From TrEMBL:
It holds the Pfam family Complex1_30kDa. It comes from the Bacteria. NDH-1 is composed of 14 different subunits. Subunits NuoB, C, D, E, F, and G constitute the peripheral sector of the complex. Its EC number is 7.1.1.-. It is found in: Cell membrane. InterPro entries: NADH_DH_suC, NADH_quin_OxRdtase_su_C/D-like, NADH_UbQ_OxRdtase_30kDa_su. This is NADH-quinone oxidoreductase subunit C. The gene is nuoC. Transmembrane segments: none annotated. Belongs to the complex I 30 kDa subunit family. Its main location: membrane. NDH-1 shuttles electrons from NADH, via FMN and iron-sulfur (Fe-S) centers, to quinones in the respiratory chain. The immediate electron acceptor for the enzyme in this species is believed to be a menaquinone. Couples the redox reaction to proton translocation (for every two electrons transferred, four hydrogen ions are translocated across the cytoplasmic membrane), and thus conserves the redox energy in a proton gradient.
Length: 166
């Protein structure tokens, strides 16, 4: 089973308008899909008699503030343990409507990963059984990993730039 075979199978099943951005990075197949395709795509990959992508290694949020209409995204890392093949699936949503369907019904491990992406990026996983903050305080009114917030507190007085090579 090669990356090319997987890509061709996915395009044949879902179409070029639903599976695009196909590329290979460091031997890992990367594909991009849409919000309405992600759940059927993941079910297909999970139940496929050959592929058997039945392990969700990771799920992460991303923020690209300059990508108008696609500012927020979710990256899914899947692993076929039987075939020892990995797959990365990406999807993007506008920051005004950061809604993505949950995949907790297929992968129970997605529960906390989706909560983390919600907590840090504000991505709303529709249908999630308990979408509340997981690492930050409940009353926090922003999502700290978005790039609109600085990484350091500019008002700190205890850091001398010369000591940090700046």
């Amino acid at each position: 089973m090669t990356n090319e075979q997987i890509a061709q199978d996915l395009v044949a099943k879902f179409g070029e308008d639903k599976i695009y951005g196909i590329m290979e990075n460091y031997g890992l197949l990367n594909v991009t899909t849409s919000v309405d395709t992600i759940v059927p795509l993941l079910h297909y990959l999970y139940q496929h008699p050959t592929f058997k992508f039945q392990f969700l290694t990771d799920l992460a949020g991303i923020h690209f503030p300059d990508a108008v209409g696609q500012e927020l995204g979710v990256i899914y890392h899947l692993h076929s343990l039987e075939n020892n093949v990995r797959l990365i699936i990406k999807l993007y949503v506008p920051i005004e409507s950061p809604k993505v369907p949950t995949i907790t019904g297929l992968y129970a491990t997605a529960n906390w990963m989706e909560r983390e992406a919600f907590d840090f990026y504000g991505i709303i996983f529709e249908g999630h059984p308990n979408l509340i903050r997981i690492l930050n305080v409940e009353d926090m009114d922003y999502h700290p990993m978005r790039k609109e917030y600085p990484m350091e507190d500019a008002t700190r007085q205890d850091k001398i730039d010369a000591l940090f090579g700046r």
